[in-house]
Amino acid sequence: MEPLVTVGVLSAFVVYGTFVAFVNTDYFVDPYLSPFFSPCLASNCEEATWDLFGTHWGFSPALLILPFPLGFRLTCYYYRKAYYRSFLWSPPACAVSDFRSSYTGETKFPLILQNVHRYFFFLALPFPIILLYDALRAFRFEGEFGMGLGTLILLANAVLLGLYTLSCHSCRHLVGGGINLLSQAPIRRRLWGVSTRLNARHMQYAWVSLFGVLIADLYVRLLANGVFSDPRFF
Amino acid sequence: MSEAVTLRIWRGDAEGGEFREYQTSTSEGEVILDVIHRIQAEQANDLAVRWNCKAGKCGSCSAEVDGKPCLLCMTRMDLFETDETITVAPLKAFPVSRDLVTDVSLNYELAKKVPPFNPVPPEPDGTYRMQQIDIERVQEFHKCIECFLCQNVCHVIRDHDDNKKHFAGPRLFIRVASLDMHPLDATDRKDLLADELGLGMCNITKCCTEVCPENIRITDNAIIPLKERVVSRRYDPVVWLGRKLRSRT
Amino acid sequence: MADFETHQYDVVVVGAGGAGLRAAIEASAEGARTALVCKSLLGKAHTVMAEGGIAAAMGNVYPEDNWKVHFRDTMRGGKMMNDWRMAQIHAQEAPERVHELERWGALFDRTDDGRILQRDFGGHRYARLAHVGDRTGLEMIRTLQNNAVHRGIDVFMECTITRLLTSEAGISGAFGYWRESGRFVAFSAPAVVLATGGIGKAFKVTSNSWEYTGDGHFLALTVGADLIDMEFVQFHPTGMVWPPSVRGILVTEGVRGDGGVLRNSLGDRFMFEYIPEMFRTETAETEEEADRWYTDKKNARRTPDLLPRDEVARAINSEVKAGRGSPHGGVFLDISSRRDADYIRRRLPSMYHQFKELADIDITTAPMEVGPTCHYMMGGVRVDPETQQSTVPGLFAAGEVAGGMHGANRLGGNSLSDLVVFGMLAGRHAAEHSTASGSPAPVPEEVLDGHAEEALAPFNEHGEENPYSIQNDLQECMSSLVGIIRTESEMLEALDRLKVFKERLARVHVEGHRQYNPGWHLALDLRSLLTVSECIARAALERQESRGAQTRDDFPTTDDQWGKRRVVIRQQDGEVVVSQEPLSEMPEELRQLVEEEG
After folding, report:
1. 3-class DSSP assignment, residue C389
2. Is B176 on the interface with C (CB under 8 A)?
3. pTM for the whole thing?
4. CATH for B2-102, among 3.90.550.10, 3.10.120.10, 3.10.20.30, 3.40.630.30?
5. Topology at the third CATH level for domain B105-238
6. B interface mutation test: which of A180, A184, A199 has the most B CBs within 10 A?
7. What is the CB neighbour count within 10 angstroms for residue A187?
8. Is pLDDT at B1 greater than 70 in this prediction?
9. What is the dihedral of CA A88, A92, A94, A100, to 10 degrees?
10. Is residue A230 part of a domain?
């Protein structure tokens, strides 16, 4: 049952993400920017965060950024467990036989590439910050300070993504896990302590932040299509 | 206050065997090992089962109950429905010696491959100073009771016999982690981990952590940190570049 | 027949707990070709069950502590029946053995300044036990095991020794069988170290595992070695009492060391009523003083909850008999109302786990129910304190199987230190003995054939006795007739019954074949178990006084004359013979140490 849910949700997410990226519209409703398109880096953006690529980029601006969080999740130690079990059936569940008879783990190409996880961590690190910036921008409605349901959704999404990123195993290693004498490195010891506590819930953050991104985009999309209007608190 | 209970126990040896059914009774608070002992005392004197402390501290009585790897002495009878037949089988990853006893010598052979503890020189008074924070990580690994349930459940050897030659398994990774993170140890075992002990074979599917009776977070606290340490050694271009530059100057 | 494998070694160590491993390591380090033979898998020996810690006067927590205080505590705890020289060596060498474990990778809990932390335990004047939470034994056995693995010691796992081999010069080897295949194996060696542990399986309620069947005591006796102090069987005051299937499993003294107290069903801390004269000056009189002692050892005296084990076990026994026991026939051990949940989980993780999993009790919110459980055999093979050699040349003993070190009652924490201190000495001197004596004369084949035949006797077609029911009846008999409280008439009855058990054992029959056959294994273990049971009963009958672990209803007080004598057991013409011998005199300066008031 569990593998089926995993397969269902991950596949749905990939399909949805691809659809969104190629549809390439309805991702901005002032002041809300969908996380799939943030930061938006080209001139063809509905709302450019930073027009880095100008007019040289003709495709969906989502394609400029999505590889990074995607790679981060793809090589994530938790998602690896999830998709090895559910997609590759290696193993489908504990004490249940592997689907395939030969097995080389992560020692051969392409799975040996999983070892680059920490670079994706670095590349993914700016995203929660940028999304937080988006969420803060979403407190301004036509120059006035305000707050809508969308503001809260973007804020929650940024926070969840931050928790997922900072609870990453590579992060835990880099901030302090790699050294043995933490007692002699008080700052790294504290950072490691925080990362360790977060890391215990890495799986939960992985799922919740995935849904966070999905819901945030869906919300903006529905607003853009006028399905309903954004409830404003003030 | 005793209740009737039916167990299907695997009987046989390396040549083969079969499940046999035993009817007996169980009373309040018993674990499955109590029931097996009752069967042994009353119906099958020669039923082979390995056990020692019967308190979850020695890790001798590992077996598979209804397909789930566990310690027989820590599996309480009240987990099961009263009319349910309980199936008890030997560990699957190791060759059967007899009945519920398996030949776990592989694990002892693998242990010899891990270079021993190699301490740095002591303080002038001949003793060592260590901080509690620095030893806590390793103390978690020292909780291991060597029940080998993690080795048994690990699909890398459970389903692929040929990997036993070049894969040390979760128990030994715990051991290496306890040495590599030891505040006093001076030996580097990272290349050994990657080349001889097959750390890369682990695909972190966490079954070892799920079955650990000592609740050691094997994957999160030992295997993944070791993988990260190996990454630093092998696959980190920044580290690699730094090392190259340093060796030039 | 001659259907067995043979091996030649310089030193054969029987038993792979703390003492056996330490002996094997030392013998191997001395250059001896060493075999380590054990009934279970390596690392499963009963040492893993030791919880509280290892006693060594390192003075890390109380700089006032030193070997002299440790020596004094040990002698007083042992009611002066200890071999004073062993107690002295033990107290002097224990700190170095603990540091050695650390050099080999053990990680003891730390003080704030990074030294080894030490905890309070019963009968120890200062906080003295180096520990790792409440799983010190596991840390110790794994450290020794990992060290031994890399020394080229040959380990014979799941191999039981049934007989020692002798020649005129002394020991010449050992004979046994592989548990897995049932095949026989003969070792030729000029030195054998017994490190087989205790005898707990003679009793119904015990903290000991199936291995504890007195094999070493039996083997030594059969080749002419002396056993001493066999009447002193320690009942640990706090074993689990509920549910029945876990009755006897140990609850560490560390619970009391860390603040837990004993209460009866009225909620009273009854231990204040049971302070004996010998410990009155060093024990708190009021609950207020006892509670203050945990943090202020200088101005307050120790809580009576931490009196030596014999006193506490007797007190619990009396409370239960007086009708003030807990619902399941024990008393309450309460730490939940005295320490916060985090502290309990950190200091006593395996106790927390054990009660949660096996009894459905959360010890951070509810009291435990505890009662006495057979825990330790103070008596054993008489050894030379310096070399650990028995009265038979080439036969050494260390750890629980050796006698003398603990006298009439062992202090908690002194066992783990005993293992490594005397394990090392036994290993060293066994290696030296083997170098000096050279290869032993070969044992005649017909002798080996005889041993094999004897071991196969339980497969005899004509028998009808079930080994499990003999063991059951024996445990019942020993628990009810030679247990915590003893009287002459009951012990005589026990001896009569033991005779019957021996006859029944001669008619034992086991089903199946030799491959990993637990019924057969038990039938062979029963031989040792019946013999040590007889030794216990005979020795207890001989000592007509109450002292330490020996409590006689018919002789309820200590007797100064008996305080100078020890009971010795030998085998002559296949019969157990009991005699008395004077204790050796302690030098004046040590006597003064012991007699110092607390």
Report:
1. strand
2. no
3. 0.95
4. 3.10.20.30
5. Fumarate Reductase Iron-sulfur Protein; Chain B, domain 2 (1.10.1060)
6. A180
7. 9
8. no
9. -60
10. no
